[in-house]
Amino acid sequence: MAPAYDPTSPFKGVKDLVDHNVLSLPSAYIKPFEKRHNPEEVFEGIDLPCVDLQSKTAMEDIKFACEEWGFFELINHGVPEDVIEDMVKNTHTFFNLSTTEKMKYFSEDVFNPMRFCTSLTPSKESYLDWHDHLQHWFKCDNLNNHPYPNIPIHYREVTKNYVKNMQILGKRLLMVMSKALGLHENKLQETYGNEEMIVRLNYYPPCPDPERALGLNPHSDSGGITILWQDQVGGLQIQKERKWYNVRCNSNALIVNVGDQVEIITNGIFKSVIHRAIVNRNLYRMSMASFFNPCAQATITPIQELLDKQNPAQYKARLSKDYIGDIYNKYIEGKNVKRED
Ligand code: OGA
Ligand code: NI
């Protein structure tokens, strides 16, 4: 006889709970009152800047968005629709595999090149997030010898194609952002060194008690820039001037946001922003985040050309990998990077 299912065990993920018809929210997922999301305190109609990457004003628009918002919608981004669609199908198939199949890839080690996990690092957290994810950590040249799941069969090809497109887009964004800062177009890329990309495929199953749970705790992204695809369900919220706003879904757009390391490199001119994901009672939601990051060994420090007497360096130099490690190992909620006093 199969062992009795233990609904309090968080490690197999939330999709597994839902597959076992868990009808009330297990206590591990109940957020303390002050951390819950209050629908009455969320604002609609946020005017998130929308940047058309092919327009003549793309550079100024990106400059404004990164300085004022840290987040923007990106249209005409050049990633072919079928590349995204194939990746979405791939991701969907993966999360619908049996728990046993997915658990073959389970790991809590954030530096693992491929890992399936739930919440962030469940063994270290007091309250778990209502989502599962599959995460790949690509060094720039390891697309071929990187590990991929065996199922679905086209996973490897489809993912490689998606990542290549995201790398091209990431590089293009860095160029535009460099020029927007008044720097040589290769400047940000140079500070990145051999860039890396973490692709995090997020799956948020329907949640029996969405008001007491969260899909992702409030956080800022610890990398360079994030390029997010989200489906039409909605759930991403950003914080601006202490208020929460829903990010609208636009099927033609990708969402781009500044991560902590670009905030540091630009000495705070571009800002990383706190965001979170809420969950839904009836619908599952998927998102795919591509974190376009500096080389793990790169020293992250403000660019000299952006500093002068009036604008001294606001952040200490640290290795890129330490920022990424922090968010997992110390489980920092809220903003992960602070200016020096
Ligand atoms: C993330 C993230 C948002 C979303 O993966 O860091 O913020 O909507 N995702 O899934
Ligand atoms: Ni994020």
TrEMBL record:
Family matches, as InterPro entries: DIOX_N, IPNS-like_FE2OG_OXY, IPNS-like_sf, Oxoglu/Fe-dep_dioxygenase_dom, Plant_2OG-oxidoreductases
Pfam families: 2OG-FeII_Oxy, DIOX_N
MF-aspect GO terms: metal ion binding; oxidoreductase activity
Limits of the Fe2OG dioxygenase domain: 193-294
Secretion signal span: none
Keyword terms: Iron, Metal-binding, Oxidoreductase
Assigned protein family: Belongs to the iron/ascorbate-dependent oxidoreductase family.
Name of the protein described by the UniProt record: 2-oxoglutarate-iron(II)-dependent oxygenase
Lineage summary: Eukaryota, Viridiplantae, Streptophyta, Embryophyta, Tracheophyta
